[in-house]
Amino acid sequence: MGTPAKEGCILINIRSVQLREIRLPLVHFFETSFGRTYVRRIILVRVESGENAGYGECTAGEDPLYSSETTDTAWHVLSDFLIPRLLGRDLENAAETAAVFGPIRGNRMAKAALETALWELEARGRGVPLWKLIGGTLREIPCGVSIGIQESIDGLLEKVRSEVGEGYRRVKIKIKRGWEVEPLRAIREEFPDLPLMVDANSAFTLEDITLFRRLDRFGLMMIEQPLAHDDIVDHAVLQREIQTPICLDESIHHLDDARKAFEMGSCRIINVKLGRIGGFAEAVRINQYCFLNRIPIWCGGMLESGVGRAHNIAMSTLAGFVLPGDVSASRRYYEEDTVIPPVTVTSRGTIMVPDDPGLGYALDHERISRATVRTRDFVSDS
Ligand code: OSB
Ligand code: MG
Known about the structure:
Helix 7 links the parallel strand 9 (196-199) and strand 10 (223-224). The chain is α/β, with parallel strands linked by helices. It has 13 helices and 17 strands. The strands form 5 sheets. It has a 7-stranded parallel β-sheet with strand order 7-8-9-10-11-12-13. Strands 4-3-2-17 form a 4-stranded antiparallel β-sheet. A two-stranded antiparallel ribbon has the order 1-5. The protein has helices at 71-86, 97-101, 108-126, 130-133, 153-166, 181-190, 209-215, 233-241, 255-264, 274-277, 280-292, 306-315, 365-371; strands at 12-13, 16-32, 35-49, 52-57, 90-91, 140-142, 144-147, 170-174, 196-199, 223-224, 246-248, 269-272, 297-299, 339-340, 350-352, 362-363, 372-379. The model is unreliable at 1-7 (pLDDT under 50). 34% of the residues lie in helices and 22% in strands. The structure holds 2-succinylbenzoate and magnesium ion. Magnesium ion is lined by residues 199, 201, 224-225, 249, 271, 300. 2-succinylbenzoate (OSB) binds next to loops.
């Protein structure tokens, strides 16, 4: 007689995986220091094991500007390397996925698309919400907005007024060379006490130190990724020279990056993005380390559709996520979302964490089919 399965131990055997690329036009273009996005090309991943299915979303951009990954590199790496390693394989839980992908270097957004789908699958299999499965506790998460670079200061002020009116807990504006001091001065004049921060997406260098000293006067919560995307050394120099806390985004790919950045004094806050770090297992590790070391963390965004947004909500329930994240209402980005109901924000500037198993949101299959430009199915032959 075989050994009975351990209580609560579910075995995952991936029978099939489907990749699907959808195109979703943004309500308004989103501009950062590296360029404008008008339409998102998003890969949705569906994994199946037994009776259950789980969904993930790839956060790679259309062009290799935020990171080296793109929608097309992720499609390639998923199809030719990650899915073949996973198909037909027995896993006790989704946490084992990271080890299966271990030998493959980088490509964390591709990995996360599949890894987060496996966590969702496991949560559905166990009949528990995803946020509970990863160890989250918060039932209502504080939300902030990220406002792209605007064509005029007046346009920016109008956006800030409207987001503040919606109840969002903090405002982040994107900055680039020539769009920093004036926009901040204008916002501070009208909103002296607004929790406010900036994101430079690596637009500056240590030669801009006098500019950063000027920014100290605006009482910002933090400056996100002011220097090179792959740096933690110059950021430590800059952090010693300014009062405003530095928050790292692009520079942090895993727990060791977070630990080294903290130990070197390169930042005082960390933005955690599921795609950038490869998925939930790493998010849980970073959360634990930062919680123990009292490093505030928050959930970053990548213009996700509902599936990725729901994963972000689940991650934001972990105890270390003490600052409002870039997790906001679907309708700020998309007229029609990939989930039903779309993600909405309360008048308190929070998102209520859903209680249903898995993602806690239903997929809008009809909407997703209409937006689909290609699909590929992978089926295990074992
Ligand atoms: O740096 O945080 C970033 C969007 C695309 C690429 C990089 C970033 C962003 C955002 C958007 O700031 C946040 C969101 O999804 O609301
Ligand atoms: Mg950022």
